[in-house]
Design goal:
Blueprint (H helix, E strand, L loop, with lengths): L7 E6 L2 E6 L9 H16 L5 E6 L23 H9 L5 E5 L2 E3 L1 H8 L2 E4 L4 E3 L13 H9 L1 H10 L2 E3 H7 L4 E2 L4 H13 L19 H15 L5 H12 L5 H16 L2 H16 L17 E4 L3 H12 L4 E4 L3 H20 L5 H10 E4 L10 E4 L5 H14 L5 E4 L6 H8 L5 E6 L8 E5 L6 H13 L3 E5 L7 H18 L3 H11 L5 H8 L1 H13 L11 H8 L13 E3 L2 E3 L2 H14 L9 H21 L6 H11 L9 H8 L1 H14 L11 H16 L5
Parallel strand pairs: 2-3, 3-4, 4-6, 5-7, 6-9, 10-11, 10-13, 11-12, 13-14, 14-15, 16-17
Antiparallel strand pairs: 1-2, 7-8, 15-16, 18-19
Bound molecules: (2S,3S)-3-hydroxy-2-methylbutanoyl-COA.
Length: 710
């Protein structure tokens, strides 16, 4: 067995060279691995004892794609994937890809360069490049339409979705599904191919399938993808490449066209932002200075206090993860309503085909209701999701502190209250932390895990690991008002109300922010979340003396709340509602004008979209620097995860803190100062955070040191 190297192992079995990708954890196609594969292929080509080749992956997958970290270099080093695939196609001996686990992106392209592909029954395949703002740059846009046809190729590459082995076989992406021993069957397949007429068939030599109406087919699929992200560049480039595949250019010219489009995307701001978020979500789960060997607390069964909207939604997360849940309400009728709401939500999923009836029954079988705190005694984790009132939460947590077994974790779902005060009420604060779910809790991916002053390290680590199990993106926050997300949201909403009192309209505000890329404008978002909910929190904070000393602060939302304009649920809020459709309501503009008169706020008719975006986004970003300075968030990237996973911030910008770097800290600081001057900033609403000030100064000094551009 001649070892080619550690990254691409070489062995011979039954006259078949086995080339094993060995670059854990995902066999990422780094330059050294590509070079190792190339060397192994040359060895197989020259070896008279070798009749065929099987390429396989070590560990839990075939290949997770290119090594994304290499993209930062701005270019792809030799041998690039196109060279490796061309070597396979001209090897003169059949090469079979044996796929298990995942074959994604460049990993799938490597398999497409092979003459044949066989996959394990549970393998997953696809082209996730579009989610990273790039496209398959190793021939994927050119070979795939030749194997599966333009419609399927367009769907797979534009959507980025993974498909299983049976779907891959059905559409022609692979040639066989292993029945038992993948490697053994791949070897047999390769030896058979040696004697078959199509044994050396290559995808590049095939005609493009279903090329008729290619342009229309691609455009229709592209339009669907762009509906969600109209500003995205990658889908448009992918469409151009697939269209080009159907042209009569040479295959080499097609690869050159694809590579040019790929490099342009790779070096663009959108891909840099999406790659930033890819790694940010992976990093967010890591707790600095935590012993990786620290044993976690076992969490096998969960208790939820409160069966309302939040409690029910939280419960569904655990039921979806196949974990037994007991939901507690004091009143039986409230408990019955809560359980019925859960059942109805699952039934809706069954109707939509997202869940089978058996899966729903399984979930409902894991759900129990109770009106007795004693039923929380055996729970490994209990989450309180009762009304957002400190006294109520303290009473509930005091009971849990007595009833829950030693070692059980007690979590509060509070979104605005002090987790440390709630933790003290339990009498066992080291077992306590915040688990802030976002409504609707069974859908929103973000989970803010709030570490209390006394939260034990293993409790925090357990919660972060549990988040992955319930398919949440978890970010650790320290204790402060609003944690990370809602604290930054406050300055965004403050400027929303002030701009409305200055003369902007809800429709103008929402259009400006949705033009920036927010999933939903601020006024629509407030009407969805509930004007009364926000007004209630503000009244509470004013009572604590926690608001700026001016009656104009958030006066509009509080006035709307006082008038019962509680949002979509009330049929009116910042808009009037025709069913679920928001309609401009002149009454709101009049309310805003009356408040402006009351507080001496100058009305204007020159408010631009640019000013709207700067006034809502820059203070939000500025608050992020304050959060960093106070140690509330571990990393700026964590803040980006919060906003893209929990608040509809456009991932194409990478999140607020990544956008700050893209804008430039000096420019950001100077714009904040300018906005402060424009608004006679009496409450430091626009004063740059000290950390931002320092980083902008440092950026300025660094720029001074840069050699003058020649
Ligand atoms: N490059 C670099 N690092 C990667 C990586 C990649 N492609 N994939 C994963 N990692 C790291 C990840 O950050 C983590 O690091 C560790 O590996 C384990 O990952 C040329 C241009 C494959 C489904 O988009 O979807 O190919 O946190 O925890 O849960 O045309 O990783 O441990 O330090 O996610 O088992 C296309 C991205 C690239 C796939 C495995 N490929 N990866 O999930 O492990 S572009 C992708 C994933 C491309 C070609 C184009 C998942 C996974 P750390 P993990 P997992």
């Amino acid at each position: 067995m001649a070892a080619t190297g550690t990254l691409a192992k070489y062995a011979i079995r039954d006259r078949v060279a086995i080339v094993t990708l060995n670059a854990p954890p995902v066999n990422g196609l780094s330059q050294p691995l590509r070079a190792g594969i190339q060397e192994a292929l040359h060895q197989a080509k020259a070896d008279a004892a070798v009749d065929a080749v099987v390429i396989t992956g070590a560990g839990k997958m075939f290949c997770g794609g290119a090594d994304i970290k290499e993209f930062a270099a701005g270019e792809i080093t030799e041998p690039d994937l196109n060279i490796v695939c061309a070597l396979i196609e001209t090897l003169g001996k059949p090469v079979v890809a044996a796929i298990h686990g995942y074959a994604l992106g460049g990993g799938m392209e490597l398999a497409l360069g092979c003459h044949h592909r066989i996959a394990a029954h549970d393998a997953q395949m696809g082209f996730p490049e579009v989610t990273l703002g790039v496209l398959p740059g190793g021939g994927g846009t050119q070979r795939t339409p030749r194997l599966v046809g333009v419609p399927v190729a367009s769907d797979l590459i534009l959507s980025g979705r993974m498909i299983g082995a049976s779907e891959a076989l059905e559409c022609g992406l692979i040639d066989a599904v292993a029945q038992d021993d993948l490697l053994k069957e791949a070897i047999t397949f390769a030896l058979d191919a040696k004697d078959r007429a199509d044994g050396l068939r290559t995808a590049r030599a095939l005609p493009v399938k279903d090329a008729a109406n290619a342009k229309d087919t691609i455009s229709a699929t592209l339009a669907k993808v762009l509906r969600r992200t109209p500003n995205a560049h990658a889908p448009k480039a992918i469409a151009r490449c697939i269209e080009f595949a159907a042209s009569d250019a040479s295959f080499e010219d097609r690869l050159i066209f694809e590579r040019k489009e790929f490099l342009e995307l790779m070096n663009g701001t959108q891909s840099k932002a999406l790659r930033h978020l890819f790694f940010a979500e992976k990093a967010a789960v890591k707790i600095p200075n935590l012993d990786k060997e620290l044993p976690l607390r076992p969490i096998e069964c969960v208790g939820i206090i409160g069966a309302g909207t939040m409690g029910g939604g939280i419960a569904m997360n655990f039921l979806n993860a196949d974990m037994p849940v007991t939901v507690l309400e004091i009143a039986q009728d409230a408990l019955d309503r809560g359980i019925e709401n859960i059942r109805r939500t699952f039934a809706g999923n069954v109707e939509k085909g997202r869940m089978t009836l058996a899966q729903m029954d399984r979930r409902m079988g894991l759900l129990k209701g109770s009106t007795d705190y004693a039923d929380m005694a055996d729970r490994d984790l209990v989450i309180e999701a009762v009304f957002e009132n400190m006294k109520i939460k303290q009473d509930v947590c005091a009971k849990l502190g007595e009833v829950c077994k030693p070692g059980a974790i007690i979590a509060t779902n509070t979104s605005t209250l002090d987790v440390d005060i709630i933790a003290e009420a339990t009498g066992r604060p080291d077992d306590v932390l915040g688990m802030h779910f976002f409504s609707p809790a069974h859908i929103m991916r973000l989970l803010e895990v709030v570490r209390g002053a006394k939260t034990a390290p293993d409790v925090l680590a357990t919660a972060m690991q549990l988040a992955r199990r319930i398919n949440k993106v978890a970010v650790v926050s320290g204790v402060c008002y609003g944690f990370i997300g809602n604290r930054m949201l406050e300055s965004y909403l403050r400027e929303m109300d002030y701009l409305l009192m200055e003369g902007a309209t809800p429709a103008q505000l929402d259009a400006a922010l949705e033009g920036f890329g927010m999933a939903m404008g601020p006024c629509r978002m407030m009407d969805m979340a509930g004007v009364d909910v926000n007004a209630f929190v503000l009244d509470g904070r004013e009572a604590e003396g926690a608001l700026p000393d001016t009656p104009s602060y958030r006066a509009l939302v509080r006035k709307l709340g006082a008038l019962g304009r509680n949002g979509q649920k009330a049929g009116k809020g910042y808009y009037r509602y025709d069913g679920r459709t928001p309609v401009d309501d002149p009454e709101v503009n009049q309310i805003a004008a009356d408040l402006a008169a009351e507080f001496g706020i100058r009305r204007r008719n020159d408010i631009t979209d640019a000013e709207i975006c700067d006034r809502l986004l820059y203070p939000l970003i500025n608050e992020g620097f304050k959060i960093m300075e106070e140690g509330i968030a571990y990393r700026e990237a964590d803040i980006d995860v919060v906003w893209t996973a929990g608040y509809g911030w456009p991932a194409l910008t990478g999140g607020p803190m990544h956008l700050a770097q893209t804008i430039g800290l000096t420019k950001l600081r100077d714009r904040l100062i300018g906005l402060g001057q424009q608004t006679q900033d009496r409450f430091d609403f626009f004063t740059p955070a000290p950390l931002l000030q320092r980083l902008a100064d440092a950026e300025g000094r660094a720029d001074e040191r840069l050699p003058e551009a020649v």
